[in-house]
Write a structure and sequence with these properties.
Blueprint lengths: L6 H25 L10 E2 L39 E2 L15 H32 L4
Antiparallel strand pairs: 1-2
Helix pairs in contact: 1-2
Length: 135
């Protein structure tokens, strides 16, 4: 078993991938803030058990959840995380429901959480290297 296959490191890697994908979705929301009829999207955060396995099944890619079979896959999306397509509370007369203040707060929180996950991953690898005498 490789060091990177340990459940905790795998969970941190999945979490970092989720943050990267969420950053892309939030950037799409901001870029479409003036598009008539656009509804903002977000991703459902993956849940893990105590040892770092995904709560919904085996570790690895999470299946894409769609409201119906007719939904189109977003361009450039990996489809590995479930989408949360709940609309905002403030919908303008043109049908656009993007609230830029909310999106900026989500982007900021996402960046801080990504930095925390990256730091934990780096420190965990350093601790393992120290334990096996590579430092």
């Amino acid at each position: 078993m490789a060091i990177s296959d340990m459940p905790m490191l795998s969970a941190l890697r999945t979490k970092m991938q989720w943050h990267q994908e969420r950053q892309r979705v939030l950037a799409e929301n901001v870029s479409n803030s003036d598009t008539p009829g656009f509804k903002p999207r977000d991703l459902v955060e993956p849940k893990f058990d105590k040892i770092g396995n995904a709560a919904g099944g085996a570790m690895g890619s999470l299946p894409m959840m769609r409201a119906s079979g007719t939904n189109i896959m977003p361009s450039g999306g990996s489809g590995s995380f479930a989408a949360n397509s709940r609309g905002g509370y403030e919908t303008r007369p043109a049908g656009n429901a993007v609230n830029l203040e909310d999106e900026m707060m989500k982007v900021s929180a996402n960046q801080m959480d990504y930095a925390a996950a990256t730091s934990l991953y780096t420190r965990s690898l350093g601790l393992l290297k120290t334990a096996i005498g590579k430092r």
